Amino acid sequence: MGYIILTIGIVTGIAANSxxxxxxxxxxxxxxxxxxxxxxITMFSLAKAMTVIPVGFAYSTYSxxxxxxxxxxxxxxxxxxxxxxATIGIILIIVGVVMVNYLGKLN
Length: 107
Fold this sequence. Notes:
By secondary structure, the chain is an all-alpha fold. It has one domain (2-102). The chain has four helices and no strands. It has helices at residues 2-22, 29-49, 55-78, 84-102. Helix 1 (2-22) runs parallel beside helix 3 (55-78). The chain is flat, with a radius of gyration of 15 Å.
């Protein structure tokens, strides 16, 4: 159940960060309100997920997948194609998330 709540946090985090760009520095009212609501849902979901999932696992998964999702959004919406170094960096982030979740151990 914790990972379902975390998934909600990741999806709403990607949407909120994407709306941050669309709101043009919070000058457009509708995207600004939607961004703030989604960010509130994101933080609530992340906090709830951390009651079940260890903090390090939850936050590394949230941050890594949200960064990756926002990058994919930027590629699709704004045609912002990352260069080789950015691509390698994103791959390393994804590998790091997988390692933390499947190979990481708690003492």
